Each structure stands twice: as structure tokens, then as C-alpha cells.
Amino acid sequence: MNTPTPEMVGVAWLRRLPLMQGDYVTDADTKLPDITTWTKPTYLQVTHVTSPQDIYSPERNPHLQVDVWGARLDYNLVSSIAETVVDTTFDGSGLGEFAVKAGFYPVRLADVSVFTGPVPIPDDPAELARSRMVLAFTYVINPS
Length: 144
Fold this sequence. Notes:
STM4215-like; single chain; 35% strand; alpha+beta; six-stranded mixed sheet
């Protein structure tokens, strides 16, 4: 078994949310598909920003940037999806133990909170709507 990366945990958590199920949540290493092939109006992309670490605790506390991309310049749709993710952090959806990916240890997610709220990113050269937020995760790896 392998230890999952913070991005893998973030992607797995987002995919567990009812609105986000499916393969349109990706990590930063996965290139977004050609816009003409998008089957959903938006994609979410997770990037690991930083990981404050306490060497005396097994708890992991990464901050993950989540970009919500829209296929057209529809900032209302993109902002609505970003706010839905924010709302999910308030109600505790998706917390607890879950499998991240086959061949990797499961994690026990204790908390997801908003570090910086959704901010629209205007003037995208590809004419995509985009909103960006940073989420703070707290979890432990469960090797048992």
C-alpha cells in the first residue's frame, strides 16, 4: 500500500460530494480536456499549495487550491458551484474514513474548512470562467 498525496485526498473528497461525482474533478497534473468534449459545464482542478506540519502529530494539514472552470464565460454558474463546495465544508459532508484510490491507504478526514473563499479570476485567455478558493484539510492516514 502507498501513502496518498494531499491532492489525491482533495480529489477523492470532492468526488464524494453529490454535486461533484464523476471524473470531472482532477488534480493539477491532469490536463483539462478540450472544451468541445466537456460533458459537464464545469471542471474542478485541485492543486496542493502548502502543508503546515506538526512533527509531533500524525495529523496532516494541507491547504489545497481548488479552481472551478466553466466552459463558457458563465461566472454565475462557476461561482454557484464554488459556493456549493464552501457550503459543504459547513455541514461536515464527506468527513470520516474513506478510500482515496486503489492501492493507497485510506484516510480519516476530520475537517475541511475554507482558508480563502471563492474569488473569480477574470480575463482568461481561453475565455473560460474560473473561480479559485483554498481549502484547509485535516486528516490522518489509516494504515490498518
